[in-house]
Amino acid sequence: MFGHDCSGSRGRDTKRRVTGFRHGTALCVLGSLALASCSGETDGRPGPVALEDEAVTRIAAPGERQAFFGDLHLHTSFSLDAAAAKTETTPDDAYRFAKGEPVSYLGRTHRRRTPLDFLAVTDHAEYLGNVRRAMQGEITLPGDQTEWQRLFSHNGGATLYEWFEYAAGGLFGESRAGLNDPALSQDTWVQTIAAAQRHNDPGEFTTFVAFEYSPTFRANGAHLHRNVIFRGPDYPAMPFSAMDSLDPETLWAYAENHRERGIDSLMIPHNTNLSSGLAFTFDQFDGEPMDAEYAARRRRNEPLVEITQNKGTSETRPELSPDDEFADFELVKSSGDLTGSYVRSGMQRGMQIAETLGINPFEQGFVGGTDFHSGISTTEEDNFPGGLGLTDAQVNSAAILSDVSPIIGSPLANLSAAGLTGVWAEENTREAIFAAFRRRETFATSGPRMRVRLFAGWGGAEGLTNGADWASRAYRWGVPMGGNLSRAPAGTKGPTLVMQAAKDPESGNLDRIQIVKLWREDGNSYEKIYDVVWSPGRRRLASGRVEPVGNTVNAARATYTNTIGTPELVGSWTDPDFDPAQRALYYARVIEIPTPRWATYLSVASGIPLSEGTKPWLQERAWTSPVYYTP
Amino acid sequence: MTVRAFLKEPLAHFLLAGGALFLLAAAWGGEDETGRHIGIDREDLLVFMQGRAQVYDEETFAGLLDRMSAEERQQLVRDAALQKALYREGQALDLASADPLVRQRVVQQMRLLLMEEAAADMSVSEEEVREYFAQNGNQYRFDPSMTFTHVFFQGEGAQEKAAETLKTLRGRAVPFEQAGQYGERFLYQLNYSDASQPIVASHFGEDFARAAFALETGSWQGPVRSEYGWHVVLPVSVDAPRSPAFADVADRVREDALAEKRQQAADRALDTMLARYEIDVEDGILR
Predict the structure, then answer these.
(1) Which of A61, A483, A579, B275 stands 20 to 30 A from B258 (CA)?
(2) Does B186 reach chain A within 8 Å, measured CB to CB?
(3) Is the pLDDT of residue A36 over 50?
(4) What pTM does this model have?
């Protein structure tokens, strides 16, 4: 065990107190005011509770939680595939970029317009750091050196894939002479930890030490990948990789063993859309039917699931949700059992499993990540340099916009400049944000930073959203996103959901907020989508749907205007068909007005048209973690 | 850098190879390196074994060597000798010139060697760090920032309501933490702490940001118009754009200063090396 976080030292605490919190809470402001008057006390004001050592942590009232935005899924050249594709950035670069500093990637300097609040660099644990080493000559691979040099000196294209084939063996749990060198990987792990420690700046910018566990199956190409996010300040001596085992249960054992020794972590499954149906199965990995202990371990270790990212959105798709007109959103091809591959149908299965086991293995909140293999986490559609090294480097626009990629079955232009994770936390620190992950007070976005609040309770919500301090009252009234509703009080109607969404100041206006309800009834699973609140001047159609918001996108120029939609939506909704005897869950989906996709900006800049299967615009969105009802 | 880590550096391999050649040459009293004599001693074998295993731990390999059977030793000697022989043959063929990849590798290693030599163990003094800060202070500048709370009204009559409320807030000297009890829900935040001007502008609009940063601090001010309505504002502090105190960014500055110094030293080393050559350019190339 090493890499103890020194940020708990007095020196750092003093800095926190004196400089205040950029994304401060009321209490922090009070604190700095008090400091100005040299009392340093909070004078026993109601609401916020200060811990005994107030210099260490200040916990604000829940109503003062702020939305922080970050990326929990990003690769650098320490990852085998990123290095093979000639990405040159390191975790240091990734953190600097996220903080808003200019960083060079593939020969160009990039800068995020709006910095992130937190970041986890999640390099593949397999061969960690060693493909980069081989290409830099630090590792001599066995065999004909000229042949290796030929592969290393690729400029994208076929040679890249030839080299990639060798370099990516670790994902399949396969050894490759020279690359499978745990001693060198350990050095890289130490560097990974050091970079995160260096850039963690409590109150300003939070880093999480993390890695990706990436078991992939030769037979069907299924991904059962997880990002492992550590709370800190202590870390294991080594990450856990597909070389250790392809069975995710062994990853849980790794995490549980460390947790017992005070090294806490959580695991985030992602790309369930590429799991060939294995992400949400009825069975355990060994093929046995799931038992209660397995379900409990999954739920304890994996409280969150990634719903959107570069390689597609995993919420649902039209084949699974024919009545959802927004289901066809940033999809790539999926194979195998679709029901087990998408989050919405997976969560229905979770409720089904809970009926027999008494525990829902898939009771989880939502996050978004980029999964870019560039170290460059930008989800700004008009500021997106590609995310897969030379694979999708935009110097060759024609290939990206026109050629069908064997990986996704359509042009790489259909990959997504997504996504982000929003959390509601008291302050921008590891402790506060990790706690928000644990209580699932998170929402995913396809890239923009819209702020979404959701509360659920039983009646009495009239006028709740009036007044500047409504959030404080809402926390006292009900549970926030990710929460579990209490049992229905006798004689009550359905639960009431109260929601607010504010647009990303840098992005499009908002179209509508929907509630997605999933429930069990008489042994079957159902879904229904309700339009709850929408921008002014539009009607609800006979179908129950609200008419479309319109479209201002000029694809030939890659422009749009905020003349439609609205900056803020507020509403409340009570379930009209509630049965207190049935399991149900509810999440909010916030839809933006149409804006140009990144490929449209690239098309306009390069003069090469989009191919037929590439949409020129998208309706960016946010998904809140569900609120769960258990009878 | 530990010895083990050092031994993993490509540069170290290069130096070791160079050093080995030098020793060889010295041992044979200037005998031609491409001669037909190959000497193998215990040290050669240990270096060879470690290089082959990519593990640099002399003690372990010494033990391994000691435990080897005569047959295994014979094989090892053959492997080590073969490597030396191949290297010499390659030298004799001048592979480095013949093969662009080898040539590139030699050039790359030489460049690294020169640059590392010039910049190794370099450090910056406190004066140099301060000097760098004085020269490059701008890159550490903070945007102007502001700590405030506000009471918000929107829709018809918002300006009048805000003006009325301003009187109330002033009359009752309503403190910061009670602002939430007045006014309407604002789509973003109620309180802003050390918020930079770009953040304020993105949440309220440019006009509001300009006006708000000019407000007097310590009492309720306004009403100020934003993109969304009217605000009564209680500014607590407004920080002008400022370069931070040196002490606050010293670590970053030191890193940057050192990086620049190393780069300059490396550039100089390359210049110096090149200056030892006379460069003869074909007529007409430089015009």
Answers:
(1) B275
(2) yes
(3) no
(4) 0.76
